[in-house]
Amino acid sequence: MKNYVLPGLTNELRVLMLRNNVTYRELSSGAGVGPNQLVRIKNNQSVGMAVYTRVCQFLNVPLDDLVTFKPVNNDNSQTP
Predict the structure, then answer these.
(1) Does pTM surpass 0.85?
(2) How would DSSP label each residue in 17-62?
């Protein structure tokens, strides 16, 4: 499985962890997700929706507090 970086996706994982005084180990254990999945979120790489759901449930936040997506123009054409 390749580590795809998702253009336009940003996350607030570290901020939410600091706000909740939670370590990566505690989040991994409490949310039931592997530490590699948390690193993938931190690096804006693809993870399944179930991983996001578990992290959000553990941190008691909605998904849009964790991730934000802004479309990226992949079109190579130039606008005047």
Answers:
(1) no
(2) HHHTT--HHHHHHHHT--HHHHHHHHTTB---HHHHHHHHHHHT--
Helix or strand (DSSP H, E) at 13: helix 13-19
- 8 φ, ψ (degrees, to nearest 5): 85, -10
Q: What are phi and psi of 11, to 5 degrees?
A: -135, 160
In the chain the domains, ranked by start, together with CATH numbers, are 9-64 (1.10.260.40)
Instruction: Note the pLDDT tens digit of each residue in 6-58.
Output: 666 678 898 899 999 999 999 999 999 999 999 998 888 889 999 999 999 99
d(CA 45, CA 73): 19
Residue matched to tokens 């507090």: 65
